[in-house]
Amino acid sequence: MNDTVAKHAQKAEETPLAKRFRGFMPVVVDVETAGFNAQTDALLEIACIPILMNDEGLLYQGEPLNAHIEPFAGANLEKSALEFTGINPESPFRKAISEDEKVAIRRIFKALKTIKKEHGCRQCILVGHNAHFDLGFLNAAIARTNSKNQSPFHAFSVLDTASLSALAFGHTVLARTCKIAGIDFDNSHAHSALYDTQKTAELFCKIFNQTPMITITDSQSK
Question: Other CB atoms closer than 10 Å to residue 148's CB: what's the count?
Answer without folding.
Answer: 10
